[in-house]
């Protein structure tokens, strides 16, 4: 399986060969990275719409001496500490944010891409450990860096990190088990912990592969039980490290998920995120569906080109890792049977598993895995297994190059029965022919047969040239030279096809909000910022809604320091989503909903939120029909791309309520009807919190006091993780702060700990006596009390087993 190869006896990995291999990888990586610079492009979409602003927010907080556990600029408040995509628990990015808090988009991309050097160098270690040829190792490393999902999914920064730590963890694991090394066990625990911190499906699948590697090592040992028992202390040390690194972040994520808009994933959703089988042809002809066309005229499997529909896209369904590697796998691996040898079996089986998993609903196996294997039902996109497909292809191709160089298959051919050889040869022809045929039929059906045929012809030409060069060599020295040429050509093809391609690059100018805005947008932003600065100087904190502007604007509020009521995030607080209806992103106006609790921008909930500014990509009279009219709004600025409106004055960010109306929050959200109350002296309070108060503040209890209450609230300090207020009131009441209620928020009144209650449906409140007081709300999600509460809720929650992550 993954045991030491007999080829280790050959002196293939000399110091010189090792240095050449390292140099080749560095040169390849640098050439690939340079493509984004030469084309003045950046990794687009989620990378810039989501991860980059998260990074900038992290950097700004660290520069100001704060650890950004809470994000007030995202969906009116968001628990960054619980969001796997906030980068808080990615040590490399946290260090980078501390060192370069205002790093450019290009530098950010470079640091993310540099993570892929880790698995590339780990490949060298794994090949060297097995005694496989350095030329094959270089090919595999190139494929790991820029093959398949590694290139196509660069926008999904978090998954790239999980993928990057997988092979270093596997290498450390193998060394630890083989040598009984405590240092290697420590390294394995660290790398596996870093991988698992991603809390995404790539990390989950890689954890499964690592577990399979441990089992495989034990089974293949001469005495499996003795092997397992002797390695238990090493595995125990690694497990302790992993748990220590993962326990708190995972617990906080589960706490968020339980209160989020995505508490469960159904099989139907996962099924729609399966990779369509016709996408497998991209392994041979990457552009057969126009995937790499910068004109974005993709005609491959997507929601409107296949009858059953799909939520996947051209990037998710892309698995090309080089023409020559696939040819060598078909020739040396399938036709000559190399894929079935003991020393490659593990990675070949990983590939089989990954293909079955990625295909999801298209095989009868995935539904059973989804229903019965713990953890699989936590995730929504089986097509994420394409990352493991790339790993398998890389190792299979690298091994086939190794065997080609060593003996070209002659020794194996002598032991193979004629009928078996014929079957394998037929399979090596039928498999690619079938994939190509399916791709051509699909393209013909959607009217692109000619374009697809050209791409198939290009594949055939490259494959023929490569195969001809390889077959002609009869001695080992010539095969080494031929292999080196083919590997260099593969590197060139990967840079040509996959570096700064239509799948992972767009002009940097499309994300100008982070760099250099167009004059009109710059002028509009200045108008808005000037208004907000003036309001902040008065102690007021109005919120803004930015809708319809191009992608980067969705989360630009994190960089610009604007308290936005919407944004871009698949994971949102459920009650806020139900009450306000922001939707997953702020570009598609159709996703912005207006439930009964938020009928328009003049409604009570909008005013409680403090929503006073609306930034749009169009004038108000051009909004979709389901949008409420902006009657009475004042136009502050307009251009060809931006319209800024000032809405009606909102409620203050904080006030003292001396009368309370108990409500069932869930009932109100279900009925979509916010009860009427006096926003100056009254507040709604969740019925479950009434018993937490020392006094009775209901209307009946307060009826005997006819005098108008007098109070004054001033915000003294407003930081990411804390809000300090000065309160003066002539009678007891509940201080309401119109910031979102969420577990982990604590409060003190004059230094004495009090209980945070849920007020006005979504917000925080605390009981205060009459007189002058200092009140401070502080977000302490890492406190023992909150962690114990989260753990208890996780265990007792009736749907805990269905709670999900991304």
Automatic annotation (TrEMBL):
Ranges annotated as spanning the membrane: 17-38, 107-127, 134-154, 160-177, 184-214, 234-258, 279-296, 316-334, 346-367, 387-406, 426-446, 452-471
Alphabetized UniProt keyword annotations: Membrane, Transmembrane, Transmembrane helix
Source organism, top-level taxon: Bacteria
First and last residue of the signal peptide: none
Cross-referenced InterPro entries: Uncharacterised_YfhO
Pfam families reported for this sequence: YfhO
PANTHER family the record matches: INTEGRAL MEMBRANE PROTEIN, INTEGRAL MEMBRANE PROTEIN-RELATED
The name this protein goes by in its record: YfhO family protein
Origin species: Alsobacter soli
